[in-house]
Model the fold of this input.
Amino acid sequence: MAVSINDIVADEAKRQNLEDRFRSKIRLRGPKACWPWVAKAKHYFGYGAINCGRGNLYYSHVVAHALWKGPVPAGAHVLHSCDNPGCCNPSHLRIGTREDNVADMADRGRLKGKTGPVDPKRCARRLTAQAARDIRSSSASRKELAASYGVSYHTIANILSGRTWAKA
Done:
């Protein structure tokens, strides 16, 4: 079972060991500059990755926030103000939600689809949780449901199988 980064950082011995290893994997620069992750372990999007013991692998920016700014609330995201995924400078990091991150991406022109920038208004979900519940309880065919809700047959199939809207 994964251990919270907050629990690891709260244990003084583990924290000191982690901080020492962590500092050796970043390039410290000035207070306003990015502090890049220079270790080999990286996610393919450029985020650094560090093992915090017993297979607990965390993104480097999350560890930087926990070490130097404080706990990362459960379910929260650590966001970059610098748009540099490998940056570990705590002054470039803040806590936010997934929605905050998507809004940042849209504001900075980084929300891209296969053919270029995506209009956030067009990629909003067409269905609500109530619609998903209604679809699950309906006796209509998938084809009929798709036509009536203005979505694809596959969207209906995914709802019925629980691949999407499972908690609705």
